[in-house]
Amino acid sequence: MSATGKAHWEDLFEPKVQGFKKAIFNDYDSIRELINEQTCAIMIEPIQGEGGVNVADVDYVRKLRALCDDNRILLIFDEVQTGMGRTGKLFCYEHYNIEPDIMTLGKGIGGGFPLSALLVKEALNIFDPGDQGGTYTAQPLGMAVGLSVLRELLENKIVENCDRMGALLKETLFELSLQYEIDNIRGKGLLLAFDLTKSNGYEFANKCMKDGLLINSPRETSIRLMPPLIVKEAEIEKFKVLLKTNLCEKEGS
Ligand SMILES: *Cc1c(COP(=O)(O)O)cnc(C)c1O
């Protein structure tokens, strides 16, 4: 909550952890201007989820990695939404050919079971097993669930499915955008979004829900799609039909 830029959290649970400076996403200079000899880390979501599915540019991420290396700063990726196959790779950082020093995981790692994790490169690890005590840390059932989820993802080629179905879904959206009010299609794998040029997003999401299509509108003008990682071609076909019945046609179509 201290790290996020989401206005909703701003006044909650004060006082927050101090020292988080916020930069403009995908604007390298805006980060570079904020660092000094006191800076310990740079933290980003490689694709901002709540922010409306904004994808970090390859060039931007690679420059951040170099900036961190040159200045002995840690690079932290929040992969709570993007990790565990969601973007068509096991972890989103793989799209950039770099590695973060620290990564946070949650949500998908438990496949519905409450579980989260903090991963650190071994050279930076300051903990020995058991150092960080807590009622729920290293909870055996949670650990077993996390391992099962990972095994299922890998053994059943679910990450590859995300990649293929994501490409199909994106293609479907591009096709629909020729006739309907779809604009600014973005995202990777099965974390996609688009803008509506006519309908209100909240109303649109509610209308779709009545037809049995679960989509989400993180802001008034955009729609976010995060279908299950096991989604099949036939379901994307069904999605297309349901989406069509709720979309407005483009001007001049
Ligand atoms: C949900 C979410 C979090 C918070 O995860 P918790 O496990 O609830 O602490 C952090 N970052 C992102 C991007 C999220 O979507």
The assembly state of the depicted protein chains is single chain
Number of helices: 6
CATH homolog superfamily of the largest domain: Type I PLP-dependent aspartate aminotransferase-like (Major domain)
CATH topology of the largest domain: Aspartate Aminotransferase, domain 2
Q: Provide the list of bound ligands, each named once.
A: pyridoxal-5'-phosphate
Question: In order across it, which strands form the biggest sheet?
Answer: 1-4-5-6
How confident overall, as mean pLDDT? 94
CATH class of the largest domain: Alpha Beta
> What is the total domain count?
2
Poorly predicted residue ranges: none
Q: What level of helicity do the residues show? A: 25-40%
Keywords for this structure?
253 residues; alpha+beta; Aspartate Aminotransferase, domain 2; Aspartate Aminotransferase, domain 1; 2 domains; four-stranded mixed β-sheet
Walk me through the structure:
- The protein has 253 residues and is α+β, with helices and mostly antiparallel strands.
- It folds into 2 domains: 7-155, Type I PLP-dependent aspartate aminotransferase-like (Major domain) (Aspartate Aminotransferase, domain 2, 3-Layer(aba) Sandwich), CATH 3.40.640.10; 158-246, Aspartate Aminotransferase, domain 1 (Alpha-Beta Complex).
- The chain is 31% helix and 17% strand.
- It is built from 6 helices and 10 strands; from the N terminus they run H-E-E-E-H-E-E-E-H-H-E-E-H-E-E-H.
- The chain has helices at residues 28-32, 58-71, 140-155, 158-177, 201-210, 233-246; strands spanning 41-44, 47-48, 54-55, 74-78, 102-105, 117-120, 182-188, 191-196, 216-219, 222-225.
- The strands form 3 sheets. It has a 4-stranded mixed β-sheet.
- Strand 7 (182-188) and strand 8 (191-196) form a beta hairpin.
- Helix 4 (158-177) packs parallel to helix 6.
- The longest helix has 20 residues, at 158-177.
- The protein is globular, with a radius of gyration of 20 Å.
- The mean pLDDT is 94.
- The structure holds pyridoxal-5'-phosphate.
- The site of pyridoxal-5'-phosphate has 8 residues, from loops.
